[in-house]
Design a protein that fits this description.
Distance between the termini: 61 Å
Structural class: alpha/beta
CATH architecture of the largest domain: 3-Layer(aba) Sandwich
CATH superfamily of the largest domain: P-loop containing nucleotide triphosphate hydrolases
Radius of gyration: 22 Å
Number of domains: 3
CATH topology of the largest domain: Rossmann fold
Number of strands: 8
CATH class of the largest domain: Alpha Beta
Helix content: 55-70%
Largest sheet: 6 strands, parallel
Order of helices and strands: EHEHHEHEHEHEHEHHEHHHHHHHH
Shape: globular
Length: 343
């Protein structure tokens, strides 16, 4: 097994794919971003590089919500079970709070065991934390972000083609718009649609519109859209489900900020009478989301600026441990859906 000699760098998912295929596996990785499908894809490929005979003993997943970083690093230093190396996947990095844990991690990153590959998972990191800076300096950083609409369309078409299923162009646009470029959800929805159309082997818009919306309520994208639409009841319901699913509060706030930045871009373009195709492209809004586009048009500029400012304040409060994150966001949702300028 060859190993890359680089101490740290940024790689695309495609680049890391190629390196793994060529046998280049590093000791430290940091997978950042919201796209769970891409992270799972890379982890599966890394798992296949571990000796198959004793893979069950040498591939482990850890959550810092349940296991201390010191225990995980001690395990990394242990000799693998009848294999050259082990693979360890570590999540919930935001649980690193005390200085002793931070010091232990930084020390390990400077001298990692050569018999363990560790993959650290996070949606985002607070760049002001020492452990965050150390991880980004020592690890191979791979950005696993949601795809742009055009990329997601291409990915979906290729996925369906491999299963000998066709999809109408308009149906594909609706499907990508509803799933927000989230590949895991996109894959799940396509599998459901493939089963539904059966021998017809062709997916149409009515089928997408009737089946896909039923599974969308857990998305942080939908939470942002609910706020833009001033739907407090739906926004709170989505938020509580996101928290129940253990989504990181900082990531949720980041998605809210992104939703209002989209609205700001759309509002500016609309004020200049830009073509709707340009508005959709620049604001990352599917042209098939007619109601959302209409809501963005009705928003006034002061409301959007106020929302962006308040979201930034809550983001800072959460990162500096001022108040309970969930309570901070819940109060923010109520505040943003109580302004008369949304109506």
């Amino acid at each position: 097994m060859n190993r890359s000699k680089k101490s740290a760098s940024d790689l695309s998912v495609a680049d890391l794919d190629k390196k793994i295929d060529s046998g280049q596996v590093d000791l430290l990785y940091l997978f950042l971003g919201e796209e769970a499908y891409l992270k799972d894809h890379l982890i599966k490929k890394l798992t296949l590089t571990v000796d198959e005979s004793f893979r069950d003993f040498n591939v482990s997943r850890y959550s810092l919500a349940d296991t201390s970083i010191v225990q995980i690093l001690d395990a990394a230093r242990q000799t693998p079970m009848m294999a050259k190396r082990r693979l360890m996947i570590v999540s919930d990095l935001d649980k690193i709070k005390d200085e002793a844990s931070t010091d232990a991690l930084i020390e390990y990153l400077s001298h990692p065991a050569d018999t363990a590959t560790i993959v650290f998972l996070a949606v985002t990191l607070d760049g002001r934390r020492r452990y965050a800076m150390a991880l980004q300096k020592a690890c191979i950083v791979v950005k696993c972000d949601h795809l742009e609409d055009d990329q997601a369309r291409g990915w979906a078409e290729k996925y369906l083609r491999a299963r000998s299923v066709a999809i109408e162009s308009s149906a594909l646009g609706v499907l990508v718009g509803l799933t927000g470029g989230n590949l895991l959800r996109l894959q799940n929805e396509m599998e459901k649609l493939i089963t539904y159309v059966g021998n017809a082997k062709r997916i149409t818009s009515p089928e997408v519109e009737s089946l896909v919306p039923r599974t969308r309520e857990h998305s942080a994208f939908d939470l942002g859209d609910a706020l833009i639409s001033n739907d407090r009841k739906k926004a709170l319901r989505l938020f509580h489900r996101l928290i129940a699913d253990r989504n990181e509060p900082v990531a949720i706030v980041g998605m809210l900020a992104w939703a209002y930045r989209r609205a700001l871009i759309a509002k500016e373009l609309m004020s200049r009478n830009a073509p709707m195709a340009e508005v959709s492209r620049e604001a990352k809004v599917s042209p098939y989301q007619h109601e959302l586009i209409a809501q963005m048009r009705r928003l006034d500029l002061k409301t959007i600026i106020f929302a962006v400012k308040r979201i930034a304040e809550v983001d800072l409060a959460i990162k500096t441990s001022v108040g309970t994150p969930a309570l901070q966001i819940e109060h923010l949702i109520c505040e943003l859906t109580s302004r008369t300028s949304f109506k």
